[in-house]
C-alpha cells in the first residue's frame, strides 16, 4: 500500500505538469482561432486582465479581512508591483503577437527557454550559486545551452512540408525560414520568455519583502490591467474592435481568466 502511494506521489507532479501544458496549449489554440475570427490581441489582453482583477478583488479583500496579522503595503511595493505589471503585460502582448504570426506550437516549444533564462538570471542576481564541480549546476548549464540552441533553430528554420513530395528533392537550408513571419514570431516569443523569467525573478524579490502572495497577485493584475488597457487604447482606437460578442472571443477570455485565477489562487496557497 505504501509503495503504491509512493508511486502515485512520484508520478503526480509529472501528470500535473503535462496537464498544465495541455491546458496552456488549448488556450493558445483557442486564442488563435478567436483571432482568425477578428479578435484583436491587444484588446484580448486588456479584457483578460480586467476580468481577472474583477474576480480577484473580492477574494483578496475577504482573505485579508480574515487575517489577524496583515503585511503592511509600502510605496516601494506599489512601485515594484507596477514594474511587475509592466513586465507581465508586455510578456503577454508579445506572446499573443507571436502566436498570431506563427502558431501555438512554436510558442509552446520556445517556452522551454523559461527555465534556461530563469537559471541565467538567478545566477546573475546571485539568487543561485554556480558550482563548477556540482553535477546539478553542470546539468542546468547544459540544459540551458541546449534549450537556447533549440529555440534559435526553431526560430530561423521552419522546415519543409512533410506531405509535399517535391520538397524531398530540394536541398535543406538551415537557418533560413520558409516564412519571414515565422522568424519574427520566434524572436518575439524569445523576448517574451525572457520577460517571463525576469517576471519570476522580480516576483521572488518582492515576496521576500512582501510575503502576501494573493495581495501581490491582485496588485500585479491591477497594474497589468492599467498598462495593457492604455496600450490597447493607443493601438486600437476603433470602438468596434472592443465589442465582444457571444462567440469564440468571449469563450477565450472566460477560459483564460478561469485558468489564470485558479492557477494564481493555487500558487498563493502553496
From TrEMBL:
Where is this protein found? Membrane
Give any GO molecular function from the UniProt entry.
transmembrane transporter activity
Pfam families under this entry?
A: EamA (PF00892)
Name this polypeptide is given:
WAT1-related protein
Which intervals hold domain EamA? 22-155
The reply to whether Nucleotide-binding figures as a keyword in the UniProt entry is no
- Where does it sit, as one GO cellular component term? membrane
Instruction: Specify the protein's topology with respect to the membrane.
Output: Multi-pass membrane protein
Give the family this protein belongs to, as stated in its UniProt record.
Belongs to the drug/metabolite transporter (DMT) superfamily. Plant drug/metabolite exporter (P-DME) (TC 2.A.7.4) family.
- Whose protein is this, by species? Pisum sativum (Garden pea)
Please indicate if the UniProt record lists Lipoprotein as a keyword: no
List where the protein spans the membrane: 7-31, 43-63, 75-94, 106-125, 137-157, 182-202, 214-236, 248-268
Name where it mostly resides.
membrane
Question: Which domain of life, per UniProt?
Answer: Eukaryota
- Give UniProt keywords alphabetically: Membrane, Transmembrane, Transmembrane helix
Amino acid at each position: 500500500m505504501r509503495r503504491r502511494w509512493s508511486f502515485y506521489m512520484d508520478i503526480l507532479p509529472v501528470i500535473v505538469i503535462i496537464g498544465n501544458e495541455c491546458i496552456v496549449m488549448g488556450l493558445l489554440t483557442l486564442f488563435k482561432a478567436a483571432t482568425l475570427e477578428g479578435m484583436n490581441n491587444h484588446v484580448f489582453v486588456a479584457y483578460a486582465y480586467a476580468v481577472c482583477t474583477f474576480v480577484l478583488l473580492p477574494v483578496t479583500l475577504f482573505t485579508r479581512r480574515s487575517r489577524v496579522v496583515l503585511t503592511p503595503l509600502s510605496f516601494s511595493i506599489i512601485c515594484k508591483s507596477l514594474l511587475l505589471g509592466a513586465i507581465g503585460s508586455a510578456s503577454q502582448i508579445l506572446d499573443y503577437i507571436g502566436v498570431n504570426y506563427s502558431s501555438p506550437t512554436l510558442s509552446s516549444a520556445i517556452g522551454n527557454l523559461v527555465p534556461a533564462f530563469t537559471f541565467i538570471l538567478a545566477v546573475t542576481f546571485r539568487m543561485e550559486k554556480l558550482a563548477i564541480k556540482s553535477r546539478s549546476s553542470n546539468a542546468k548549464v547544459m540544459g540551458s545551452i541546449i534549450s537556447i540552441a533549440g529555440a534559435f533553430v526553431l526560430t530561423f528554420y521552419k522546415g519543409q512540408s512533410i506531405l509535399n513530395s517535391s520538397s524531398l528533392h530540394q536541398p535543406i537550408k538551415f537557418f533560413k525560414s520558409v516564412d519571414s513571419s515565422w522568424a519574427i514570431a520566434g524572436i518575439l516569443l524569445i523576448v517574451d520568455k525572457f520577460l517571463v523569467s525576469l517576471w519570476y525573478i522580480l516576483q521572488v524579490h518582492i515576496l521576500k519583502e512582501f510575503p502576501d502572495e494573493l495581495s501581490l497577485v491582485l496588485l500585479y493584475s491591477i497594474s497589468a490591467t492599467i498598462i495593457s488597457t492604455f496600450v490597447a487604447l493607443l493601438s486600437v482606437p476603433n470602438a468596434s474592435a472592443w465589442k465582444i460578442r457571444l462567440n469564440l472571443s468571449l469563450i477565450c477570455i472566460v477560459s483564460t481568466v478561469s485558468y489564470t485565477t485558479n492557477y494564481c489562487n493555487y500558487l498563493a496557497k502553496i
